[in-house]
Hints:
Layout: E1 5-13, H1 20-28, E2 34-36, E3 49-51, H2 64-67, H3 72-88, E4 100-105, H4 111-124, H5 133-137, H6 141-150, E5 156-157, H7 165-178, E6 184-191, H8 196-204, E7 233-241, H9 242-247, E8 254-263, H10 276-289, E9 296-298, H11 305-319, E10 327-329, H12 332-335, H13 342-356, E11 358-359, E12 382-383, E13 388-395, E14 399-406
Parallel strand pairs: 4-5, 4-6, 9-10, 9-13
Antiparallel strand pairs: 1-7, 1-8, 2-3, 6-7, 8-14, 11-12, 13-14
Helix pairs in contact: 3-6, 7-13, 10-11
Amino acid sequence: MSKRVVITGLGAVTPLGNSVPEFWDGLKNGRCGIELIDRFDTSDLKAKVAGLVKNFDPENVISKKEQKRLDTYCQYAMVAADECMKDSGLDTKTVVPERFGVIVGSGIGGIATIEEQVIKMHEGGPRKVSPFFITMSITNMAAGNIAIQVGARGVCTCIVTACASSSHCIGEAFRNIKHGYSDVILAGGAEAPITKIGVAGFVSARALTSSEDPKRASIPFDKDRSGFVMGEGAGILMLEELEHAKARGAKIYAEIVGYGATDDAHHITAPREDGDGAKTAMRLACEEAGTDVVDYINAHGTSTHLNDLTETIAIKNLFGEKAYDISISSTKSMTGHLLGATGAIEAIATVMAIKNGFVPPTIGCETPDEGLDLDYTLHVGKERDIKYALSNTLGFGGHNGVLCFKKWED
């Protein structure tokens, strides 16, 4: 018999703040977390802005000694996991360790460490390479270190599907609990790609905007959109089997009721022009949830020409005339695109929207492009009762991940 799965804890490190309350406050008030990059010289780069994490201090969670052995992406993940654990009120002594899991992904992993260590080897030879190079750079270490941090001895995996990574992590955690393999799973993603090689790579791929105005850089659905803005951070959600949560008196944010995963099988970076892969993923998530109506969609909305257009086409093709009744927003307009962590922080945004009955806005869009005529909640958020909501994440390689959340009703 299938189990019901609920969200009982949240943790976030984002360009809008290093906790869920700060993140949600920024979203609700339409604050822009994008700014000029000041960590390295960008004079020879066409991309100048990013969604940067600010005032990050992991010392209450990670000792200074341990920080030196962890890439920044992993530190983001561990701090978000700590907040999530505290928020959930879970006493790990009451959990069967083998039924407590961690599924946390990253699109790139420790790219800052890779960049740093390659330079060291180039300048000083192999002996200059850190003995922690491998464990700092590999992509599974966020999941592994969180498992050590919380004593989770059950399933511990890392899904890497570019921008869809953390949505797939959450979806697979949902299925794992739904089918009875685990009771509790910390799921999400982390990314720290704002390095010179990271930015240069995406610039060379012609994916990033060259706008130097932070407020006109990530402008989903706007006719002048010209590429996405890179972001960084982490999002962790606690997924828990309903009866397990009720037995300990846990607060419940929302229920996760559907998951769709597909691939475009079309192109390594460009989506299908008919949006069929995204449409199918949304359909599968809705079918599993048992609904053909949704009130809110947190769109992938990257501010690239093809993504915003094909995602809109997919929504229209699936929902028909009902598409015009759906509130839609791209929170990337405020955070930038967190790559492998984007699905996780947007899942948190979706859960908070349901919990608070409030649709966050899409900022920066002044004139919607031709054919982009849905309700994108421009400029200012709005109150709305949300029963069902989708969170869409569409990644390089054609990977599509869609999560369906439902307002908690006992």
